[in-house]
Amino acid sequence: FLALPLQTGRIEPNYPKVCGHQGNVLDIKWNPFIENIIASCSEDTSVRIWEIPEGGLKRNMTEAVLELYGHSRRVGLVEWHPTTNNILFSAGYDYKVLIWNLDIGEPVKMIDCHTDVILCMSFNTDGSLLATTCKDKKLRVVEPRSGRVLQEASCKNHRVNRVVFLGSTKRLLTTGVSRWNTRQIALWDQEDLSMPLIEEEIDGLSGLLFPFYDADTHMLYLAGKGDGNIRYYEIGSEKPYLSYLMEFRSPAPQKGLGVMPKHGLDVSACEVFRFYKLITLKGLIEPISMIVPRRSETYQEDIYPMTPGTEPALTPDEWLSGVNRDPILVSLKEGYKRNSKIVFKAPVREKKSVVVNGIDLLENVPPRTENELLRMFFRQQDEIRRLKDELSQKDIRIRQLQLELKNFRNSPKNN
């Protein structure tokens, strides 16, 4: 994948890339607390942590600061914990969610309640709950540290694809497909998933609907894969809960969308949300700004309340011990100031196994795809090289000891 420069315009064809994976990259996420750290996952069954140097890439980056192996099949999703530094979640095609403590570079918990491929993960505001959608047509609310399923919905009439927690409203929104194969959205109470609060048909197109929620303005954005438009709604606390506002239209279809964190927005222009739209037909990434028109040039406090900043509220040990804490809020009135002094330090690891819940995740796992076979081949080649070096060193040491023993036997003192 590319780590793009700050300036706009067409980049060179040979612009440096992050290219250390041995399979297709399936998901990437920026660290919410350290702005030059990226997590990625791949078909090669690994999760990797990358540190982008100051000023951007000068050459291809092939060495990750941390490589994480624990899944037996390809890894489709990664998510950083919203309030805790160095806690990362990964979901694989082995139907497991692993929780990684990057302070030690090891998985510390495993969520094993899914019976098929996990499609989406979303946290509530303080990260105490995890919502997942799954190919088994179920929506789940999980307590991540114990792996206990608190609520579960079988969505037969609404095949769920994506889910997002709506801030601290104790509500969830899912996008999916109705029994008539039309795209629809559903609103749920996180404490009772027996029935959705509302279901609303969107259209008859086939592309996935990606939901994005802005807790500061209570706005929901819906963008369809392969569409050129982005719909936006206001979320209310009372019926009808969902109010359609407007629609951004564009003739260029989007394959994917990224979002600028809140502290990176232009508050002087009343920008409340910014998408980065991937247009594969033209080889472009196009920024799309959502701006609230205001005549006054003063700071608009009603559209910029206190918002989560770049300071973590918890350490990994605190969160794993059961502590929950809301995000540390900052004001955007003075513009973004980089106050966070956190630096990522990769742990030194010597362990040759990954044991979670008494199970060695790397023991005797057969490859299931060509990419998994390649990844295993590369790992075995590295292991063979290491063992050959170790063997040659031991051969040299044995010869040295044999010579010393011979000299000892032939010495006059011993005769």
UniProtKB/TrEMBL annotation:
It comes from the Eukaryota. Keywords: Coiled coil, Repeat, WD repeat. The keyword Acetylation does not apply. The keyword Zinc does not apply. PROSITE patterns: WD_REPEATS_1 (PS00678), WD_REPEATS_2 (PS50082), WD_REPEATS_REGION (PS50294). Residues 384-411 form a coiled coil. Signal peptide: none annotated. Gene3D superfamilies: YVTN repeat-like/Quinoprotein amine dehydrogenase. Pfam families: WD40, WD40_4. One of its GO terms (molecular function) is actin filament binding. WD repeats lie at residues 18-60, 68-110, 111-152. SUPFAM superfamilies: WD40 repeat-like. Belongs to the WD repeat coronin family. This is Coronin. It comes from Quiscalus mexicanus.
